[in-house]
């Protein structure tokens, strides 16, 4: 899906607005947590096969995105999110009149799109582990991870005190603890500089002080521009089977199989730009369905059918034709009450009968006084 914004940023119609840039970055940042959540849900159902994938989720996701981003950078000149929002990357300084991405630009973009988030995510996890996380920030440094005392036991130290290996080990442990303390002290400042640089470039980009929306694109000498009508025509004319894996056909079955794999792989990667909006629509539909009354009605269990009425026993009392009369005293019912069998009597009559004989007088079915239900009517 190509998305072409009609918003113009000043006089330069090809420059995307800051809102488009932020939307692209947000989309890239939300894909990985969404896939992690889906994997964790199914890992609880199928732990034998998915727990290992969940444990190595960041690395597997980075490997998959390396293939996806490389394809979109080489085929469309932009990342997956940038192409989804109708933008591309161009070189600031043209080479032989062409501002398309070179091979070095593609690999530099891959390092920033895939490698930088992976490294930063691992650094964030390591800092959270050694600093104690939110509990240490709220409740003090006592919740931070205690530095392990890796000194050997007194017996081992005495036995190895004169060896060079023991001294080397002590120095290595000392350097390791020093590096850990230095990382714990310096990483928050480095993380602040990372986000501050991004925010400053956003502000400068918004006020047209720079054509680069991030310091990393500035380092690579790349700008993000909107796709033009010529770009869309070129993409429509592009053969979907074009791939680095494809080779000229020579009648060989191996070459034919290779080209088929290349065609399927390229087509599958191109289908991602259609699959993403379909997934969003399907998710929104499920969210609406679970909140709607249709889902509640579909989940409701229908009430069970009423039990079959008990027929009068031949040896029991007969039911009067006048439904207002009590079968026991043949008088109009006073203070009506129903027996467990469903027949209605005067409350004193049915209470005394069940207390004496423990049966319904009409059906002779077993009954107990606790099963008597008094009836109330407006009349």
What kind of oligomer do you see?
Answer: single chain
Mean pLDDT: 81
Q: Indicate the percent of residues in helices.
A: 55-70%
* Number of contiguous helices: 13
Function: Component of a retrotranslocation channel required for peroxisome organization by mediating export of the PEX5 receptor from peroxisomes to the cytosol, thereby promoting PEX5 recycling.
Protein name: Peroxisome assembly protein 12
Membrane topology: Multi-pass membrane protein
Pathway: Protein modification; protein ubiquitination
Please give a structural write-up.
The chain has 379 residues and is mainly alpha-helical. The protein is built from 13 helices and 5 strands. It has helices at residues 18-45, 47-55, 57-76, 80-84, 103-131, 133-139, 154-160, 164-206, 215-220, 229-237, 253-291, 293-299, 347-357, and strands spanning 87-91, 222-226, 336-338, 344-346, 373-374. It has a 3-stranded antiparallel sheet. It has a two-stranded antiparallel ribbon with strand order 1-2. Strand 3 and strand 4 (344-346) form a beta hairpin. Helix 3 packs antiparallel against helix 5 and helix 5 (103-131) packs across helix 6 (133-139). It is elongated and about 115 Å long. Residues 1-10 and 146-151 have low confidence and may be disordered.
């Amino acid at each position: 899906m190509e998305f072409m914004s009609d918003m113009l940023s000043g006089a330069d119609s090809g420059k995307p607005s800051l809102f488009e840039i932020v939307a692209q970055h947000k989309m890239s940042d939300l894909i990985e947590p969404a896939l992690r959540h889906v994997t964790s849900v199914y890992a609880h159902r199928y732990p034998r096969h998915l727990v290992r994938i969940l444990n190595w989720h960041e690395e597997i996701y980075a490997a998959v995105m390396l293939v996806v981003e490389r394809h979109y950078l080489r085929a469309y000149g932009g990342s997956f999110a940038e192409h989804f929002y109708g933008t591309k990357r161009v070189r600031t300084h043209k080479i032989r009149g062409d501002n398309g991405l070179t091979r070095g630009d593609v690999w530099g973009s891959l390092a920033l799109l895939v490698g930088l988030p992976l490294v930063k995510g691992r650094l964030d996890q390591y800092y959270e582990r050694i600093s104690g996380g939110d509990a240490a920030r709220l409740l003090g440094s006592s919740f931070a991870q205690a530095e392990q005392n890796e000194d050997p036991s007194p017996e081992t130290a005495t036995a190895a005190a004169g060896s060079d290996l023991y001294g080397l080990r002590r120095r290595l442990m000392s350097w390791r603890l020093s590096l850990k303390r230095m990382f714990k002290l310096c990483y928050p400042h480095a993380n602040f500089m990372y986000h501050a640089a991004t925010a400053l470039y956003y502000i400068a980009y918004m006020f047209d002080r720079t054509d680069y929306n991030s310091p990393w694109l500035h380092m690579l000498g790349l700008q993000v521009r909107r796709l033009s009508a010529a770009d869309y025509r070129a993409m429509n004319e592009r053969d979907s089977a074009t791939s680095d894996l494809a080779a000229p056909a020579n009648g060989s079955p191996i070459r034919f199989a290779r080209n088929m794999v290349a065609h399927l792989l390229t087509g599958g990667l191109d289908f991602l730009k259609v699959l993403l909006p379909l997934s969003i629509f399907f998710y929104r539909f499920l969210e609406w369905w679970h909140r709607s009354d249709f889902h509640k009605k579909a989940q409701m269990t229908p009430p069970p059918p009423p039990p079959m009425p008990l027929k009068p026993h031949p040896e029991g009392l007969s039911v009067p034709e006048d439904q207002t009369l009590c079968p026991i005293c043949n008088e109009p019912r006073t203070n009506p009450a129903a027996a467990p069998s469903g027949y209605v009597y005067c409350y004193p009559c049915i209470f005394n009968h069940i207390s004496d004989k423990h049966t319904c007088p009409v059906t002779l079915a077993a009954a107990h006084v606790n099963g008597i239900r008094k009836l109330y009517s407006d009349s």
